[in-house]
Design goal:
Elements (H helix, E strand, L loop, with lengths): L2 E3 L13 H14 L2 E8 L7 E4 H5 L3 H4 L5 E4 L6 E4 L4 E4 L5 H5 L6 E8 L4 E10 L12 E7 L7 E4 L12 E6 L5 E8 L3 E8 L10 E10 L6 E11 L7 E2 L3 E7 L7 E4 L2 E2 L10 E6 L8 E3 L5 E4 L10 E9 L5 E11 L7 E7 L3 E2 L7 E8 L9 E6 L4 E5 L4 E6 L10 E10 L6 E11 L7 E2 L3 E7 L7 E4 L2 E2 L9 E5 L3 E2 L2 E2 L4 E3 L5 E4 L10 E10 L6 E11 L7 E4 L9 E4 L8 E4 L1 E3 L10 E7 L5 E3 L5 E4 L10 E9 L7 E10 L18 H32 L38 E5 L6 E5 L14 E7 L3 E6 L7 H33 L5 H26 L4
Parallel strand pairs: 2-8, 9-15, 17-24, 26-32, 34-43, 45-52
Antiparallel strand pairs: 1-2, 3-6, 4-7, 5-6, 7-8, 10-13, 11-14, 12-13, 14-15, 16-19, 18-22, 20-23, 21-22, 23-24, 25-27, 27-30, 28-31, 29-30, 31-32, 33-36, 35-41, 37-42, 38-39, 40-41, 42-43, 44-47, 46-50, 48-51, 49-50, 51-52, 53-54, 55-56
């Protein structure tokens, strides 16, 4: 095999219109650097056989050859060769039969284009197919019949149809051999159109009476090694004397017809005459020597000699034909003539568009001027019929740039955007300059490749989600959705939560998100009372490289459910003690006795509370405010009423369904604590250790304050030697020291609607205390005619009581007189304390610890009031 490498850069064809355009086209053509590579190899090579080393012959590194994306484009559909991109070799793809491809042409070549990218290069590859002796010579017929009159002259020649050998060159028919006989010899003739053919020459006159038939064998052989041959039998019949043979009107007939001549049309009529009369003068016509490609095209009328068209003419395939016609009379004598038919070209071939290279998909970020495709146009017609113009129809984003001969480059004219248009149908039209011109369109479908140039975009700027408290873990909260107009993985959106904290706890402990669907789920159950809303950020990220992302805020609101029962603050729900309230016997109808205070941790209507007495000792004695919780008397309390009254109060919220809580309120109808022993029927749980501690603290505290007070009185007496005067006439209003705490001021809180004040008074000269109900009033109201002043220090959040009088000259005497009264009061209180203590110890009956402590605190507040009074009198500047 011979390998020839030829590289030459071909200049672009110069435009006749302007010099600058020719320079531009030349520059583009040089950039393609067209090169011709020639390989020669024999036909019938096996598939995979190496034809040539492309990478080496092109001077391209074999390691980088595949990255140049080499590809070949054949003019036809059959791909005879392929490129091994790994080693840069050109290999046989299908069996190549030279005779099938080129017939008997002396030179059989196969051309195709080789394209390489980065940079773009176009090379013309020419393959020369060498012939091998793989065919035998063959005659058109296995037997030839000749009629020769016995009067034929010595030296007469009779032509025999030539043998055909599809091979070419030395492997075609090289000569003939004739079997030995005494009458005939062989003469070999050569024709430019048909090659070598045989003629038998009469060497001795024939005598029909001696031998009327002769049989000869003609052998045709080629020049191959080993030599191949074919034979034909010639049957000769000797006829009686015939003096004249046919004579053609002209030895050569020449005619020119257009290639679009219709089938059945007469091309030419040959004519021959014979001087004999009768049957010997009747002339018939037939083809003697005829090219293979002419047999399906022409036919001859044996009687008239009309040569007609029976197949299609094609100037591009065969521009001319040379045919030999034989005229034979009835006696067998024949003459031959030559007919030459020239085919004239007409514009019967539309331009042919071939896509040599197409870069699809083309990335959307390709710069303007990027080459998309290399287009090859061809027109088989000649002269002006073969001149081609090429243009793009209705597409401004691409343009055609002429390059080398009959090649155009399709390049981008504008920037591309796949999201706006993902594919283009580019119609290229080629028109020749024939008359009329013929046009051929070709549509290129170009896909635009995606670049990750768009971040995901959420459908909303922010999201609000609502979920009821006490939800089940895994409950769907809401769904976020983001769209990415990019394609495939660049447009695949994945969702995730931005790491953050909610009340110091990672947001992942509260919510999770499905990365594919964007559905947000609750990880745990929420409690409206713990927190009511929180905010999380969701990020949507595509799968591009590098990835793009965007964020959105999701605000989660927890809606309240009625999951909390009302909680009673007062009376205190203590399982170890019962709260008992004292109600004076002289209480009138509508008087406020006590109040139930409750709250609900829920909100809205779930926290609207209503109160109801569900059970009572005397249903007609007490009533409770529906929304205030105030317990009032429905009628005046009488002596016949049971001293111990028990109420069961139900507090119910307004939820759906509603929740409720009950509490027991024990009321003791009595005017003083002397009736306290009657409470022994009420059961209390003993707590001896705590009771002992409270008693010891109470005794120590009272004794300490009492001694301090005596010392203070003695000190004042020695400091002021003036006679005091009593400022009080009648009853002096002082706070009671033994009333339970619920009769002190209770400030409104939670669901209470207002504040109430309850005051107790002690009259001078009396050992008992009186309880006075005061209706609901404002904080600025002064009880007891302004004698008592409210300050924010009274027990359980109540006000501190002070005695404020106007200073006069007998202030010391008044103070001492007051102290005498107060001392009488304190002695009676101490006797009462000891009495209560001993009764509790002996009877093991525990009264409310809060009641006991309250009595103790009341006593302390009395001490504080007196001390404040004395200090103010002695030290007015304080």
């Amino acid at each position: 095999m011979k390998t020839h490498f030829l590289m030459e850069c071909t200049a672009a064809y110069a435009s006749r219109r302007s010099v600058w355009k020719a320079i531009v086209l030349y520059s583009f053509a040089v950039s393609l650097c067209l090169g011709d590579i020639h390989y020669s190899f024999p036909e019938e090579m096996k598939r995979g056989s190496v034809v040539g080393k492309l990478a080496q012959d092109l001077g391209v590194d074999r390691n980088t050859f595949s990255s140049r994306e080499p590809r070949i484009e054949f003019d036809g559909k059959k791909r005879y060769c392929e490129i091994n991109a790994q080693n840069g070799e050109l290999v046989i793809n299908v069996r190549i039969d030279r005779e099938e491809l080129c017939g008997q042409k002396p030179l059989c070549t196969l051309s195709f284009d080789l394209f390489m990218e980065n940079p773009l290069e176009l090379h013309r590859i020419t393959l020369e197919i060498q012939d091998i002796n793989d065919n035998n010579p063959a005659f058109p017929h296995s037997e030839v019949k000749l009629d020769i009159p016995e009067s034929a002259d010595k030296g007469s020649r009779f032509s025999i149809d030539e043998a055909a050998d599809p091979d070419s060159g030395i492997h075609s028919v090289q000569g003939y051999r004739l079997s030995n006989n005494p009458h005939f010899s062989l003469a070999v003739q050569t024709s430019a159109e048909t090659g070598k053919y045989a003629e038998i020459v009469l060497e001795h006159e024939l005598d029909r009476e001696k031998q009327d038939k002769h049989s000869l064998i003609l052998t045709a052989y080629d020049g191959g090694n080993p030599q191949k041959s074919g034979t034909v039998v010639i049957q000769i019949r000797v006829l009686d004397i015939n003096d004249n043979k046919p004579v053609f009107s002209q030895p050569v007939y020449k005619v020119s017809v257009p290639e679009n001549l219709l089938v059945g049309s007469v091309v030419v009529t040959v004519s021959a005459s014979d001087a004999d009369e009768g049957a010997n003068g009747d002339v018939t016509y037939e083809f003697s020597h005829m090219p293979v490609n002419a047999k399906p095209i022409f036919s001859i009328d044996p009687a008239s000699g009309d040569i007609t068209i029976k197949g299609s003419l094609d100037f591009e395939d065969s521009p001319s034909f040379e045919i030999r016609v034989k005229a034979k009379d009835g006696a067998g004598l024949a003459a031959t003539s030559k007919v030459v038919v020239d085919i004239s070209d007409v514009n019967d071939n539309a331009p042919f568009i071939m896509i040599k290279s197409l870069k699809t998909p083309l990335m959307e970020d390709a710069t303007v001027g990027t080459e998309v495709a290399v287009i090859y146009v061809q027109d088989k017609d000649t002269e002006s019929n073969g001149n081609i113009k090429c243009f793009i129809q209705h597409n401004d984003r691409f343009k055609l740039t002429p390059s080398i001969k009959n090649h155009f480059a399709l390049v981008t004219a504008e920037a591309l955007d796949r999201e706006r248009e993902s594919e283009y149908n580019i119609t290229i039209t080629a028109t020749d300059e024939g008359s009329p011109p013929l046009t051929s369109p070709r549509t290129i479908r170009l896909f635009v490749g995606d670049v990750n140039d768009n971040p995901p975009a959420f459908e909303q700027q922010s999201y609000s989600a609502y979920i009821s408290e006490n939800n089940k873990p895994g409950t769907s909260v809401c769904s976020v959705s983001a769209n990415d107009p990019d394609w495939r993985q660049n447009g695949t959106v994945l969702y995730s939560l931005v790491p953050s904290e909610v009340s110091g706890v990672p947001v992942s402990s509260f919510l999770s998100i499905n990365g594919d669907t964007g559905v947000i789920h609750a990880v745990r159950s929420f409690d409206y009372e713990q927190f009511r809303n929180f905010t999380v950020n969701v990020v949507a990220r595509d799968n591009g490289s590098p990835p793009l992302s965007s964020n959105v805020t999701v605000k989660v609101f927890i809606t309240d459910e009625n999951d909390n029962s009302p909680q009673i603050l007062y009376p205190v729900p203590d399982g170890k003690s019962l709260m008992t309230e004292m109600v004076p016997k002289a209480t009138l109808s509508g008087s406020l006795v006590s109040k139930v205070i409750a709250v609900d941790a829920d909100s809205g209507q779930n926290a609207w509370l209503s109160y109801q007495i569900v059970k009572s000792t005397d249903p007609r004695l007490f009533t409770i405010g529906l929304h205030s919780g105030e317990i009032k008397t429905q009628r005046d309390i009488s002596e016949s009423d049971n001293m111990k009254q028990s109420l069961v109060i139900s507090v119910k919220d307004n939820g759906q369904p509603s929740l409720s809580t009950t509490c027991a309120v024990n009321l003791l109808i009595s005017d003083n604590l002397s009736e306290v022993p009657e409470l022994k029927d009420i059961t209390y749980e003993d707590n001896n250790s705590k009771l002992t501690s409270y008693l010891i603290i109470a005794l120590v505290s009272v004794s300490t304050f009492f001694l301090t007070f005596i010392i203070l009185i003695v000190a004042v007496k020695f400091c002021h030697r003036r006679k005091p005067r009593l400022l009080f006439d009648g009853a002096v209003a002082v706070p009671s020291a033994y009333l339970p705490p619920n009769y002190a001021e209770v400030d409104g809180a939670g669901t209470l609607r207002s504040s109430y004040k309850y005051d107790a008074y002690l009259t001078t000269g009396s050992r008992t205390s009186d309880f006075k109900f005061v209706s609901s009033y404002n904080e600025n109201t002064l009880p007891a005619g302004g004698t008592l002043k409210k300050e924010h220090n009274f027990h359980f959040g109540s006000s501190m009581i002070t005695i404020d009088v106007t200073e006069n000259e007998d202030e010391v005497r008044e103070a001492l007189l007051f102290c005498t009264v107060f001392l009488h009061f304190m002695v009676s209180r101490l006797i009462l304390f000891f009495k209560i203590i001993f009764e509790l110890i002996l009877l093991s009956t525990l009264l409310s610890v809060r009641t006991f402590i309250t009595d103790f605190k009341n006593a302390i507040y009395i001490f504080r009031a007196v001390i404040h009074f004395l200090v103010k009198r002695v030290y007015p500047s304080i």
